[in-house]
Amino acid sequence: MIETHAHIYDESFDEDRALIVSRAKELGIQEIWMPNCSSETLKALYASEEQFPDACRPMMGLHPAYVNETYVEELKTAAAELEKREFIMIGEIGLDFYWDLTFVKEQEEAFMTQLEWAKKYNLPICIHSRNSKDNSWNAILRCCELIEEFNWPQLRGIFHCFSGNLEEAQRVIGLNFLLGIGGVATFKNGGIDKWLGEIDLKHLVLETDAPYLAPVPFRGKRNEPSYLQLVVKKLSEIYACSEDIIKAQTTENAKKLINEL
């Protein structure tokens, strides 16, 4: 398995990070992809990569929830990091309308700038797209519109923690993106389990978003990569196939995305 989205560098893992990574490896998780958030997370991001070089692989980007009046400087910092070394993806980037709508314009500008980076380095992107609390601001559809406006046919990536509907999923897939499936698939009122089986497995990758969004029966508690097994179990029920098929196909999808297959 490949864990395509986990903040394993988060301070909530400071006391037992080695144990968490070991537990993931024992379950067959080969890689843990780590999205960056801002300049504040760089030190911890690199420290986790250094501690677990055979497992933890970093991305580089500016998370939309960290876009504020300092976003131009934040983008400069991330751009400088991209000049220094290689990363597997640009991420996580996107739009977050959930907490605050103050910097929507700036979020969109930051997103478009980072799409330029994806083109420059020919890298996939990891998209964070969170709607407003009343769903009147749809981040998934707005990200799709901006991707269409950018109009680079080779643009590809993952809509991380996908929680939209079937129509939105089909639009995302039509733009050459994969759906990142995690704990939400196990939630009683998550909704995606109702239609996910209509989507071919070749369009899915696995993720936890640890330490957030732990799957049932750990919902509300700290999430960790080993809980990916619970997501696999749920997907095997949805698709009426073996867990091995889920693991093999999603791993193949992830490797193809970063041109390692």
Automatic annotation (TrEMBL):
Any GO MF annotation of the entry: hydrolase activity, acting on ester bonds
Cited SUPFAM superfamilies: Metallo-dependent hydrolases
One cellular component (GO) term of this entry: cytosol
Keywords, comma-separated and alphabetical: Hydrolase, Metal-binding
Binding positions (a divalent metal cation 2): H128, H160
InterPro entries: Metal_Hydrolase, TatD-like
Pfam families: TatD_DNase
Positions of a divalent metal cation 1 binding: H5, H7, E92, D209
Keyword Transferase applies: no
PANTHER family: D-AMINOACYL-TRNA DEACYLASE (PTHR46124), HYDROLASE TATD (PTHR46124:SF4)
Recorded family membership: Belongs to the metallo-dependent hydrolases superfamily. TatD-type hydrolase family.
Protein name: TatD-related deoxyribonuclease
Organism lineage: Bacteria, Pseudomonadati, Bacteroidota, Cytophagia, Cytophagales
